[in-house]
Amino acid sequence: MSGGVAAAHGRRRKPRRRVTTESAGVRWSLVGIALGFLGTFLAAPVCVVFASAFSKGMGPYLAALADGDSLSAIGLTLLVAGISVPLNAVFGVAAAWLISKYDFPGKSVLVTAIDLPFSVSPVVSGLVFVLLFGAQGVFGPYLSEHDVKIIFAVPGIVVATTFVTFPLVAREVLAVMQAQGNDEEEAALTLGATGPQILWHVTLRKVGWGLLYGVILCNARAMGEFGAVSVVSGHIRGETDTMPLHVEILYNEYNFVGAFAVASLLVLLALVTLVVKQAAEWASSARRERDVAAGRAAGAAGAALTGAAR
Amino acid sequence: MTVSVASITKRFGDVFAAVREASFEAKPGCITTLLGPSGSGKTTLLRIVAGLEEPDSGTVTIGGKDVTHVSPRERNVGFVFQGYALFRHMTVFDNVAFGMKIRGRKREEIRKRVSELLTLVQLPEYGGRFPSELSGGQRQRVALARALATEPSVLLLDEPFGALDAKVRVELREWLREFQKRTGVTTIMVTHDQEEALELSDHVVVLSEGAIVQAGAPHELYDRPATPFVASFLGGANVLRGTVRSGRAEVGAVAMSAPEGAKDGASVHAFVRPEDVRLEKAAATDEEREGVALAKVERLTRVGAQVKVALELPDGESMTVQMSKAEIDSLGIEAGDRVLVDLRDAKVFVEDYAI
Questions:
Q1: pLDDT tens profile B118-177
Q2: How many Cα atoms are found within 13 Å in the side-chain-facing hemisphere of B89?
Q3: What does DSSP say about strands B338-342 and B278-281: parallel, antiparallel, or unpaired?
Q4: Which of A182, A191, A288 to mutate to test the interface with B (most CBs of B within 10 A)?
Q5: Sheet of B238-245: strands edge to edge?
Q6: Which residues, other chains included, contact B169 with Cβ-Cβ below 8 Å and sequence gap of 6+?
Q7: pLDDT tens for each residue of B234-252
Q8: Is A197 on the interface with B (CB under 8 A)?
Q9: Coil, helix or strand for A121?
């Protein structure tokens, strides 16, 4: 009772304790557990990566990165991400569009299938492609006849990466599309827009941030993928080694500076991804807040205007 | 242009029929309202006219042309959605211009027409705003301008005032009425608000459970409801129960004419509007007679210039009567008085309908 009165009587006294808050002991131990966990499993590893990478100074770090095999691994990783991310962006938007706008038999199967790469071990995913396209695989004889190399070559890495990362864009975009409903598309339709016009002028603009976020996540995962790529790549140095694979090779050769130097790039990529993602969220929530504030102001002005107009 | 809808049926799933054998006509230049409670199929019917839903059977013609299987894109209808469905990433100007841009109109022409329309909906300065920066009423008018930009042959409005607060709603209602008369565009509107329907429309189509129950001019429906549903849906009505005896409907101790073909012993409902009843102070010698009941005044509630009188009829049923303050005062009616209640305006229906 006294707490309520104090709160009602101005801010000089201590702010009233929220009813749902626990005692100080419980609060601090929870905070301690959370921080301890984050420190052990996130902050410490990141520090170790950079500490090891720079353990012999700047020179050996740069030299390790400038090494021919490292450069080729970086180049291959960029190439693979450069192909699979756009593919998944197109696929993701198409799948999300299909699922949120149309009803068709087997729709729930498709929704489940989109999540499949997440529920299957990446190693198994890689193995599937070996069984399909490998020398002893289903299409193996046909491919070798026509001199097409997929497994233990760049195409295999692209295929495996694309498969493993395809849920990322689709899920993000689908969530946004389902939340926003179909009204604007229907409005565009009654205004005379064709399907492609609706997609370009309305739907893609609506999902903007969701698509960007999905693409960022997809890119991070595509560059960092290890399991599936490891199975299909064949680990040919300077040819089919991506950055994660290269880290493993260098580490196994006791080249710790080299391994951690390449690893530091992947960690940097992760940090950049988080920053961009956070920025995207801030941008969209700031816009929402501005919208709400402006909406309120306009509401008042609008009421005045309708009054004046009459 | 005339819109006619002929025996439209639409099912969702195998069993549920959202619209059953619905036929009506919207005359050119008029406001036709589809009125019904939620779930009565009125929005589905409107969406069928727009082409956003395809009917299972029946035809839709606009201006004499069968458009039943024509895409909404080519029907040339303007649709104002319940939540307005403005393009949130476009400015007001771009929203209104959308239809014309899609049709490849010239820039100058678009600019001219958009500014005309924004002036028409009284938002000339708002072209650069985003929908989120507008109030509900302003958004509604932008949606209207957008729907009219392509010069549609029919304007379709889905619960146009549903999302607005009471004051803005009444203002916009009057405004829309004037606006429609000025533009002369054939309009079909959906609403669940009987007051809105009666005030705005030239023609009202009442729906219940997917079927059209009655259609006609607002005053016609109000004065001559064809079914108990229409009687109770249009305006609050008192419902009195009774039975048919020797060809007369006996409601309480009052006899009145029974509906045609009513059998003896059938239960009847008498509907009487609070404002259709006249009271008279009863003398001690007064007795019940044809169509007039004797009742006791329970209490008087004064609401501004109107007085609501709660009555108890001899059989224990209660009813409400609404009269002007002046009338009540001149009659000198007070709580506890015995009054004569003239029920001759009551509409009597044989009971086949539960309220």
A1: 988 889 889 999 998 998 889 989 999 999 898 898 999 999 887 777 788 888 888 888
A2: 14
A3: antiparallel
A4: A191
A5: B254-257, B248-251, B238-245, B267-272, B347-350
A6: B161, B196
A7: 877 788 888 888 778 888 7
A8: yes
A9: coil
Which residues of chain A neighbour B168 with C-beta distances below 8 Å?
A: 303, 306
Give the three-state DSSP class for B241.
strand
The answer for residues whose C-beta is within 8 angstroms of residue A197's C-beta and 6 or more apart is: A188, B102
**B133 contacts A208? CB cut-off 8 A:** no
Sorted by sequence, the CB contacts under 8 Å of residue B239 that are 6+ apart come out as B232, B269, B270, B271, B355
Cβ contact, residue pair B87, A205, below 8 Å: yes
What local confidence, expressed as pLDDT, does residue A307 receive?
42
In angstroms, what CA-CA distances link B132 with A189, A236, B140? 22, 56, 12
**Quick check: B311 and B319 in contact, CB under 8 A?**
yes
Res A3: pLDDT: 42
CA dihedral B280, B284, B287, B291 (to 10 degrees): 10
User: Burial of A93 by CB count in 10 Å (0-12 exposed, 13-18 middle, 19+ buried)?
Assistant: buried
CA dist list (Å): B119 to B1, B115, B142, B174: 25, 6, 11, 17
What tokens appear for B9 in the block? 């049926």
Share of chain B above pLDDT 90, in %: 30
Q: Which two tokens stand for residue B155?
A: 């304007």
Tokens of B45: 């019917």
Give chain B's length: 355
How far apart, in whole angstroms, are the C-alpha atoms of residue B192 and residue B198? 11
Q: Is A248 helix (H, G, I), strand (E, B) or coil?
A: helix
Q: Inform me whether the C-beta atom of residue A196 falls under 8 Å from chain B C-beta atoms.
A: no
Chain A closest-CA separation from residue B268 CA (Å) = 46
At A81-92, the pLDDT tens digits run 999 999 999 999
| pLDDT of res. A97 | 87
Strand ranges (E), A47-148: none
CA distance B320 to B318: 7
What pLDDT, on the 0 to 100 scale, is given for residue A236? 81
Render pLDDT for B57-110 as a digit per residue (tens, 0 to 9): 999 999 889 999 999 988 889 999 988 999 988 999 999 999 999 998 999 999
Q: Hey, are the CB atoms on B134 and A302 less than 8 Å from each other? A: yes
ipTM of the assembly? 0.78
pLDDT: is A294 or B271 the higher one? B271
Is it the case that residue B195 has pLDDT exceeding 80? Answer: yes
Mean pLDDT computed over B329-341:
85
For the cut 90, the answer to whether the pLDDT of residue A8 exceeds it is: no
Show Cβ contacts of residue B72 under 8 Å, excluding neighbours closer than 6 positions. A186, A189, A190, B50, B51, B52, B79
Q: Provide Rg for chain B, Cα atoms.
A: 25
User: How far apart are alpha carbons B62 and B27 in whole angstroms?
Assistant: 11
